[in-house]
Amino acid sequence: MGMKLRQLGASDIYLSPIIMGTWQAGKTMWSGINDKESLRAIRAGFNSGIIAFDTAELYGNGHSERIIGEALRGFRDQAVIASKVSPRHMRYNQVIAACERSLRNLKTDYIDLYQIHWPSGSFGNKEVPVEETMEAMNELKARGSIREIGLSNFSRTQLQEALQYGSVQSIQPPYSLFWRHAEKDLIGYCVENSISVLAYSPMAQGLLTGKFKKGHIFQKGDHRIKNRLFSREISDNVQDALTRISAFARSKGVTMAQLALAWVIAQPGTCAIAGARDEEQVKQNAKAEEIFLSDDDLAELDMISRMVTDSLDDNPIMWE
User: Fold this and answer.
1) pLDDT of 26
2) Number of compact structural domains in the chain
3) Judging by beta carbons within 10 Å of its beta carbon (0-12, 13-18, 19+), is residue 314 exposed, middle or buried?
4) N or C: which end of the chain has fewer CB within 10 A?
5) Rounded Cα gap, residues 179 and 202, in angstroms
6) Do the strands 18-21 and 270-275 form a parallel or antiparallel pair, or are they unpaired?
C-alpha cells in the first residue's frame, strides 16, 4: 500500500508525506546506533511506502549517506534522496566537491534534492555570499548532478535572498506541536510561493513520543541535553501537555508519535521528516499517514500545544 504522494514545490518530484530522516544513521551525536539496524530500518521504511530519505554530509561525515546508498541498492530509481551541503563548504568549488563526495557515498549519479544545510556563517563558519553558493547549486543542476535545490534552517528573509539567485523547491525548519516558530512568517510565505515545508524534529526529538519522563538523564554525547524543550524551566508545562496528548492519542487508537506526525502533515504544504532507530519505529511512523484529523481535532491539539509554545521565547534555534 503506497502513500498518497505530494509534489515537491513546483517540481516534477513527488514525495511521501512522511520522509525518513537519517541523522541517527550517521551515529555521531547519538548513542546506541547499529548499522545493520539502520539498513533494515531504511528498507522497512521503503517497503512501508516511505519513498523519500533525508540525509546530509554532516551526518557522521558521510556515514549516513553511505548507509542509504547501501540500503537503496536495487531500487534507487524508485526513491527520492535529499542530502545537504555543510556550512563549512559554502564556496563555489567546495559545494561542487561536497556534492561529488555525496554522490559517491550514496552510490548514485544524481541527488533529487540538494539542500544548503545552514545559512552561511552558522556555527562560526566563514561568511560566504549566498549568491556564490547558489551559483554552484545552479551549476550542479545544469550538470544533472542534482534535480532540485532546497534550503534548511533559513529564515524567511534568508530564503528571499537566496531566491534572487535561483529556484528553491523546499525549506527545512524544525516544526512540531511543541515548536511552531516556522508559522510566524515562513510557512505562509512558502505556501503562497509553492515551496514545500519539510519539517524536521516533528516529534520534538522524541519528546512527543511520551517516552521521556520529567528529569530524564540522557547518555553522555546525546545532543538533546542542550535542546531547550528538555530544559527544567518548561518541564512542568511539557509534561502537562504530554498527559493530554497521550489521552487524545488513546481516544484515537494511535500512538503519541503517530499523532504528532499526523498533526504536522495536516498543516498546509508540509511533509514530516521522521527519524527511526529500527524497523518497528519506521513502520509505526509510516502509519501516521493514514490518520485523519478533523477541524475539531486540530483545534484541540492547537490548544494543548500552546501550553508549551506560549512559554518559549522567539529564538527559532532549538538548541542552547
Assistant:
1) 65
2) 1
3) exposed
4) N
5) 8
6) parallel
257 within 8 A of 282, measured Cβ to Cβ: no
Closest CA to 282 of 43, 63, 120: 43
What interhelical angle do 256-265 and 295-309 show, nearest 10? 100
122 conformational bin, left if phi > 0, alpha if psi -120 to 50, beta if neither: beta
199-210 pLDDT, tens digit each: 999 999 899 999
The list of the chain residues with pLDDT below 50 reads none
Q: Find where cell 552510490 sits.
A: 107
pTM value is 0.96
Exactly one of 59, 114, 175, 200 is catalytic; which is it? 59
**Which string of DSSP letters, residue by residue, matches 83-144?**
EEE-TT--SHHHHHHHHHHHHHHHT-S-EEEEEE-S-TTGGGPPP--HHHHHHHHHHHHHHT
118, part of any domain: yes
Do residues 217 and 31 touch, judged by C-beta distance below 8 A? no
Give the C-alpha separation, 74 to 254, whole Å. Answer: 33
Domain harbouring 25, CATH code: 3.20.20.100
Give the domain range for residue 269. Answer: 6-206+255-292
User: Is residue 146 domain-resident?
Assistant: yes
Whether 247 is covered by a domain: the verdict is: no
* Predicted local distance difference test score (pLDDT) of residue 168: 98
Rg of the chain on CA atoms, in Å: 19
